[in-house]
């Protein structure tokens, strides 16, 4: 079939207290993130013993995908590598080369375009291949899947379940969240011919599709986990401020769906299950957080279907007319000038 492995490429997270600061330094290297923000975020991690759930969740999702591959008769060993923490993708790729892998597909754990969600994974691929040097496996990245019917229906069922948790009463507001990014990064997101803002437009489109499937008429799209110096504009409103606004409007119950993420990693459990839930509590609002899709059987089916687009000519399923970019070879950008890294403000 032309491919001899799958590389599962993710963000990475610390797995012990001593790993927190070195991890954060990797994440923010060369970015305009102030030291105070770094120390504040370090505290969030230390609150959980310095362990992010992200690696464990990735390993569990990989196990489900391995089962699904077997069930569909595809023989494709899966390797796990990260951008920011062990197992680092450079080391994983060296192992793959050592095992004789010549050509591998890459599944990045993000459904969207944009610098952090798409282009930076291309840079990871390029960096890992450069580190491995001659004979590095050829790496073909799988496409963005924010509008894939399996992704949309898994998130929609999670939203329905969260509504049920609140007793399916009238007047529940559904709020979708995604990681905020600088305005400048959103403007630069996507192939230049698409006019920019591909990240926020894809998030909005995914939210629209999920709301339609879950039968929800009224919903909002907001942002979470902003960093960077305060004078730099990021996508707004923030989820916590938005809860204040909803309270002012008399909304008494909210369901929050972190549609921008595939798993319950630390930014989800800290910023939503802690901070947002607490603010909702202060306002006396009922609050339920919808699950992320990684543990849903449809997520493993989705990954294997994306693989089958390459190895078995599976039809390319998508619910929107948005461009399905993200599929490139050896870390090439989706198009010339696609998701150019934003100019970083001086610290
Ligand atoms: C769009 C996007 C996604 C979604 C796409 C995808 O999933 O890939 C995402 C995912 C994640 N972000 C994560 C964690 C962090 N992100 C940070 C910083 C930043 N994220 C950004 C954007 C995104 N981030 C940006 C523009 C920055 C500013 C610095 C920079 O320009 O790069 C920082 C630094 C401290 C801070 O500033 O908060 C941390 C610790 C974790 C892992 C959590 C865990 O450990 O469980 C995950 C999955
Ligand atoms: Fe891109």
Automatic annotation (TrEMBL):
Cell division among keywords: no
Keyword Isomerase: no
Catalytic activity: Fe-coproporphyrin III + 2 H(+) = coproporphyrin III + Fe(2+)
Annotated compartments: Cytoplasm
Record keywords, A-Z: Cytoplasm, Heme biosynthesis, Iron, Lyase, Metal-binding, Porphyrin biosynthesis
Enzyme class: lyase
Major location (coarse): cytoplasm
Residues the record lists as binding Fe(2+): 179, 267
Binding site for Fe-coproporphyrin III: 52, 121
Pathway(s) annotated for this protein in UniProt: Porphyrin-containing compound metabolism; protoheme biosynthesis
EC number from the UniProt entry: 4.99.1.9
Function: Involved in coproporphyrin-dependent heme b biosynthesis. Catalyzes the insertion of ferrous iron into coproporphyrin III to form Fe-coproporphyrin III.
Family: Belongs to the ferrochelatase family.
UniProt cross-references to NCBIfam families, sorted A to Z: hemH, PRK00035.2-1
Protein name: Coproporphyrin III ferrochelatase
Annotated source species: Amycolatopsis ultiminotia
């Amino acid at each position: 079939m032309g491919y001899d492995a799958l590389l599962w490429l993710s963000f990475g997270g610390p797995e012990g207290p001593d790993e927190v600061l070195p991890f954060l330094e990797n994440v923010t290297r060369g970015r305009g993130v102030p030291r105070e923000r770094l120390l504040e975020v370090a505290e969030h991690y230390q609150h959980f013993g310095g362990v992010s759930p992200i690696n464990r969740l990735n390993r569990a999702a990989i196990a489900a995908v391995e089962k699904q591959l077997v069930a569909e008769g595809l023989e494709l060993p899966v390797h796990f590598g990260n951008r920011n923490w062990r197992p680092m993708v450079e080391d994983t790729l060296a192992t793959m080369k050592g095992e004789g892998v010549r050509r591998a597909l890459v599944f990045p754990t993000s459904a969207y375009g944009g610098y952090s969600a798409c282009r930076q994974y291309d840079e990871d691929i390029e960096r890992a291949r450069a580190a491995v040097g001659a004979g590095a496996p050829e790496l073909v990245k799988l496409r963005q899947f924010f509008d894939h019917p399996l992704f949309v229906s898994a998130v929609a069922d999670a939203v329905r379940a969260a509504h049920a948790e609140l007793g399916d009463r009238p007047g529940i507001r559904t709020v979708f969240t995604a990681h905020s990014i600088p305005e400048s990064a959103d403007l630069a997101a996507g192939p230049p011919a698409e006019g920019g803002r591909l990240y926020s437009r894809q998030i909005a489109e995914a939210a629209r599709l999920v709301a339609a499937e879950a039968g929800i008429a009224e919903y909002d799209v907001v942002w979470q986990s902003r960093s960077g110096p305060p004078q730099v504009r990021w996508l707004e409103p923030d989820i916590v401020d938005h809860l204040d606004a909803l309270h002012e409007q008399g909304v008494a119950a909210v369901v929050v769906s972190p549609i921008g993420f595939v798993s319950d990693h630390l930014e989800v459990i800290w910023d939503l299950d802690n901070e947002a839930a607490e603010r909702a509590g202060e306002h006396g609002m009922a609050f339920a957080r919808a699950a992320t899709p990684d543990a849903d059987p449809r997520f493993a089916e989705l990954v294997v279907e994306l693989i089958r687009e390459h190895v078995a000519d599976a039809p390319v399923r998508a619910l929107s007319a948005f461009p399905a970019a993200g599929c490139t070879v050896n870390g090439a950008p989706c198009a010339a000038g696609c998701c150019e890294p934003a100019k970083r403000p001086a610290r």
